[in-house]
Amino acid sequence: MAKLGSSRVLCGLLSALLILEAASSSLSSLSLSSSSSPPLLWPLPAQASFGADVVTVIPSTTFFSTVGGSSSLLQGAFDRYMQLTFSHAVSATDEANDPFRQQQPLLGAFVLVDDWSEDYPQLETDESYNLTVDQSETATIRAKTVFGALRGLETLSQLIKYNFDTAAYELQGAPLFIADSPRFPHRGLMVDTGRHYLPLSALRSIIDSLPYIKLNVLHWHMVDTQSFPFQSKSNPKLWQGAYSGPERYTQADVAAIVDYARLRGVRVIVEFDMPGHAQSWCKGYPEICPSPTCLTPLNMANTETFQRIAALIEEVTGGKPSAKGSPSGLFPDNFMHLGGDEVETGCWGKTPAIADWLRARNMTEDDGYAYFVKRVAKMVIDTGHRPMQWSEVFDHFKGKLPKETVIHVWKDVTNVTEVVSLGYNVVRNVGYNNVSWYLDNLNVMWDAVYQNEPCQGIPSQDLCNLVLGGHGEMWGETVDASDLQQTTFPRLAAIAERLWSPRNTTQDLSAAAERLRSFRCLLLERGIAAAPIDNKNAREAPSGPASCYSQPGASTKEVLVV
After folding, report:
1. Quick one: pLDDT at residue 522?
2. Sign of the CA dihedral with 69 first, then 71, 74, and 76 last
3. Which of 37, 394, 427, 461 is 20 to 30 A off residue 386, Cα-Cα?
């Protein structure tokens, strides 16, 4: 394996910096272009220019290196990307006998970062990067943060391919320059551990997959009607609502998962859905529920209910916002999801103590719903965090909600233009239609998912800017560790490109199909069990023998673009 000499390192670095400076001055004129077919990247970068050369790439143990600083987070990423990028062994003899070797093979990649902080990423974390491969012996990734550098590493890894005919790695499209940044800052996947427990290994594996498509949020729908697997030290009986003793997460488990995600540039936002979907809370604390025969919504007439919720919020948030060098709480992200969906208030009217409480305050059941969701939202806001709540909360109470609330839109009936016009931020993933981002809708194919535009119908860019992004939602009624990945992929990749890439570059379905088919094969090489892209039902097995690159299946169908 070749190693970079110090003089070559210096020359390569100076050359790369000069190219970066020149390229940066003309970013506005860059577009996705090439004198030949551009590499099949997923998701598409914001701006890129490709040449027509093929450069031999020579791997080494020091292929990736930082310049101007050090980072244990990036060193861990270098170790991972060495395995991901150079999965086929190349001997020194192979390199020496390569008849197609260029005069100047690519010997390494320098990573330069402005801010070396490894703090937990937040909504405002900068993920932009520039990637340059010029006539020197090194590629250069320049980013404002270590998390932007992670995104650049993923792009570079997709550009390097192994050529079985020459027994060498190569990079096509050189010289190249990429200036990339996400269209939306909030791009995620929801996993549901309330309907089926997901082992820690399954959670780690799905987190591993998110940087491959440049997603940066794991929305952890922790508990639901069926089970409460989370350990609360302030409310130790809550996890009596778990399916079984082994199907639980200790706080040490949770902390380890959250940090595992941080090292990959992924925020973890926990959801405790309330006051509905909360029957599992009642097993440990029946007093916070209306009655033994009518379990939800939670009992807002009992002060103990809010005391226990407040203690849970304190554990999650640490009672204050996370700041640079000072993470707070078990989940250091400055968002907390409070659910609030599908609340049937009939139990309140049927429970005498709650009905009397409402009557004494001249409140209807719907008023009680408003009281509950606004009270728990204020608890989160008082800790310096932002509450996320499902769209029913807005549909009921409109502009009466605190402006810090992020409205998570999943229903077609929610008027997103009205939401943003009133000044609220939105996370969007409308479900249960023919372009649904609900991944448990198994009959919605990738091409339909791809055409779901987060800002469709919003009349101006200023209002669209209030849309933070969106999620693929993996509701877990029929999903456990045995089928999580193939239900998620490759459709989640279609969502990811919608959220990362510029709107005007994500309009060509046929071009996207070619890239997605190739990317699905890359996912398989990386150990992600992605289903064939043309399945009529998402997680079906292949329909017969075929190449990964030409797997037969249902043909692309026309869908309503929204």
Report:
1. 98
2. positive
3. 461
Report pLDDT digits (tens) over 268-289: 999 999 999 999 999 999 999 9
The answer to whether 136 and 20 are in contact (CB under 8 A) is: no
Residue 265 φ then ψ, to 5°: 75, 30
Residue 342 annotated among the catalytic residues of the structure: yes
Q: Is 322 in a helix, a strand, or coil? A: coil
Residues of the chain under the 70 pLDDT cut? 1-37, 92-103, 552-562
Say how far apart CA 123 and CA 139 lie, in whole Å: 29
Nearest-angstrom CA–CA distance, 140 and 153: 10
Rounded Cα distance between 25 and 374, Å, is 48
Burial tier of 357 (Cβ tally within 10 Å: 0-12, 13-18, 19+): middle
The single residue listed with the structure tokens 């029929």 is 478
Centre a 10 Å sphere on the Cβ of residue 462 and count the other Cβ atoms it contains. Answer: 9
What 8-state DSSP symbol labels residue 240?
G
What pLDDT is recorded for position 553?
A: 52
Distance CA 49, CA 551 (A): 31
- For position 104, what pLDDT does the model report? 86
Give yes or no for a contact between 388 and 217, defined as CB atoms under 8 angstroms apart. no
Q: Is residue 240 classed exposed, middle or buried when 0-12, 13-18 and 19+ CB atoms within 10 A define those classes?
A: middle
Characterize 158-185 residue by residue with b for buried, 16 or more Cβ atoms within 10 angstroms of its Cβ, and e for exposed: bbbbbbeebbbbbbbbbbbbbbbbbbbb
Annotated active-site residue in 287, 304, 342, 418: 342
What's the mean pLDDT when you consider all of the chain? 91
The whole-angstrom separation of Cα 216 and Cα 50 is 27
Q: Are 391 and 409 in contact (CB under 8 A)?
A: yes
Pull the structure tokens for residue 208: 């591993």
489, 523 Cβ separation under 8 angstroms? yes
Cα gap 54→51, rounded to integer Å: 9
pLDDT of residue 91: 73
The torsion region of residue 91 among left (phi > 0), alpha (psi -120 to 50) and beta comes to beta
Q: What is the pLDDT of residue 551?
A: 77
